[in-house]
């Protein structure tokens, strides 16, 4: 399995891209609607118009407790930017969608990333985004066993990316 993430010039923004063979609205729904998000990441509750929702991740080995996510920017169906703070640090994420050749491209950015966390963060996003592709295209999402066997070996590559 090949590492797909890159760092922007600031050295603290991880970028991963995935391509989908479906219209932009379908990918947008999988990123923003709680029942669709549940297929690959987790669910959310609350009122997004308040600027805050509670997100519960559901693909992890142990059920997680809800985390508060701030909705920093929501420009359907092209840009969603959220941020959160938890025991693992600060998360500043954006999903940018673009229509390309009859399909959709999603660019995920995690900003203000500590490069030392890349060996864990990079494989994690690879796994989650492959789960998103499977959810959108009605495929079989990669399992936790696949994460350990196929995605965690990318840790060394992400570590080297953060050290360069």
Describe this structure in words.
The chain is of the alpha+beta class. It has one domain: START domain (Alpha-D-Glucose-1,6-Bisphosphate, Chain A, domain 4, 2-Layer Sandwich), CATH 3.30.530. The chain contains 5 helices and 8 strands. Helix 3 packs across helix 5. InterPro entries: ASHA1/2-like_C, START-like_dom_sf. Belongs to the AHA1 family.
The CATH topology assignment is: Alpha-D-Glucose-1,6-Bisphosphate, Chain A, domain 4
Any guess at the CATH architecture?
2-Layer Sandwich
Proportion in helices: 25-40%
Q: Catalogue the unreliable spans.
A: none
Strand order of the largest sheet: 1-2-8-7-6-5-4-3
Instruction: Profile the largest sheet.
Output: 8 strands, antiparallel
H/E element sequence: EEHHEEEEEEHHH
- Class by SSE composition: alpha+beta
Strand content: 25-35%
Characteristics:
164 residues; alpha+beta; Alpha-D-Glucose-1,6-Bisphosphate, Chain A, domain 4; eight-stranded antiparallel beta sheet; 5 helices; 30% helix; 35% strand; START-like_dom_sf; ASHA1/2-like_C
Outline the secondary-structure elements.
Layout: E1 6-7, E2 14-20, H1 24-32, H2 34-37, E3 42-45, E4 52-57, E5 67-75, E6 79-86, E7 89-100, E8 103-111, H3 118-136, H4 144-151, H5 155-163
Antiparallel strand pairs: 1-2, 2-8, 3-4, 4-5, 5-6, 6-7, 7-8
Helix pairs in contact: 3-5
């Amino acid at each position: 399995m090949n590492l797909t993430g890159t760092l922007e010039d600031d050295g603290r923004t991880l970028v991963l891209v995935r391509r989908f063979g479906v219209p932009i609205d379908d990918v947008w729904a999988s990123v923003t609607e709680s029942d669709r998000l549940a297929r690959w990441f987790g669910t959310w509750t609350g009122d997004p118009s308040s600027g805050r929702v509670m997100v519960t991740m559901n693909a992890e080995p142990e059920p997680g407790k809800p985390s508060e996510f701030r909705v920093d920017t929501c420009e359907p169906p092209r840009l969603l930017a959220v941020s959160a703070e938890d025991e693992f640090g600060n998360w500043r994420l954006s999903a940018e969608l673009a229509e390309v050749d009859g399909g959709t491209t999603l660019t995920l950015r995690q900003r203000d990333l500590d490069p030392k966390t890349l060996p864990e963060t990079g494989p994690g996003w690879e796994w989650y985004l492959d789960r998103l592709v499977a959810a959108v295209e009605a495929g079989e999402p990669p399992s936790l066993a696949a994460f350990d066997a196929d995605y965690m070996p990318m840790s060394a590559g992400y570590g080297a990316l953060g050290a360069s």
